Amino acid sequence: GQNIDQPTEMTATEGAIVQINCTYQTSGFNGLFWYQQHAGEAPTFLSYNVLDGLEEKGRFSSFLSRSKGYSYLLLKELQMKDSASYLCAVMDSNYQLIWGAGTKLIIKP
Amino acid sequence: SQTIHQWPATLVQPVGSPLSLECTVEGTSNPNLYWYRQAAGRGLQLLFYSVGIGQISSEVPQNLSASRPQDRQFILSSKKLLLSDSGFYLCAWRGPGDTGELFFGEGSRLTVL
């Protein structure tokens, strides 16, 4: 079966760095997405990786290793507004998205 | 620019009552449209997707149905709601770029009592 694993919850301190991991097992691979979802709101797109390596976008970076079935989202200089759930999703061979359950990130002052 | 809207934002319905959630997209033509449901602590579950008017693909057997009467309109319906239909429903369209990321509507919180 297809599976996306990510931690349920993480806690970090304002101003610090946090890394959210995602491992996947899917039938085929056509890219990996990270989305941010604040409580009660819709997800918003953060990043897309299809090749191995690191993609940097401001305070957020996303890394992919296809051979390991592994990705992480790195958030630097954490702000209180970064408190949200972070969803990992993989596009399979049928170009359908398989979603992880999300990681709830709690930022403390 | 493209926008997507869905409504209503919140609704509380009794078991056995009908449901209609509506989603419209503006600023694009012939979009791929999706209905997802999100239960607490669970990943997004794809319910239906549509590649064109009248073309609906169902991903899971369920108490729900979808219709696409117009190019930029996608409707999620039920004739008789069950308690298990409660959840956060999200409409989305796939962007035109190479990445094909999804853009979501505001979401509809359904509580079935």
Task: Note down, in words, how this protein is organized.
- In chain A, 0% of the residues lie in helices and 57% in strands.
- By secondary structure, chain A is mainly beta.
- Chain A starts with a strand and ends with a strand.
- The mean pLDDT of chain A is 96.
- Chain B has no helices and eleven strands.
- The N and C termini of chain B lie far apart (39 Å).
- With 113 residues, chain B is mainly beta.
- In chain B, strands 2, 4, 5, 6, 9, 10 and 11 form a seven-stranded mixed β-sheet that branches. In chain B, strands 1-3-8-7 form a four-stranded antiparallel β-sheet, with no helix packed on it.
- Chains A and B meet through strand 5, strand 9 and strand 10 of A and strand 5 and strand 10 of B.
Provide the descriptors you would attach to this structure in a database record.
heterodimer; A: 109 residues; mainly beta; six-stranded mixed sheet; five-stranded antiparallel sheet; 11 strands; 57% strand; B: 113 residues; seven-stranded mixed sheet; 0% helix
Extended strand count of chain B: 11
Report the principal-axis shape of chain A.
globular
Query: Radius of gyration of chain B, Cα only, in angstroms?
Result: 13 Å
Poorly predicted spans of chain B: none
What class would the helix/strand composition of chain A place it in?
mainly beta
Largest sheet of chain B: 7 strands, mixed
First and last CA, distance of chain A: 40 Å
Question: Structural class, from helix and strand content of chain B?
Answer: mainly beta
Assembly type? heterodimer
Quickly count the helices of chain A: 0
| Residue share in β-strands of chain A | over 45%
User: Nearest-angstrom radius of gyration of chain A?
Assistant: 13 Å
Cα(first) to Cα(last) distance of chain B is 39 Å
Main interface: chain pair and counts: A-B, 23 and 17 residues
Number of helices of chain B: 0
**Based on DSSP secondary structure assignment, what is the total number of beta strands of chain A?**
11
Mean pLDDT of chain B: 92
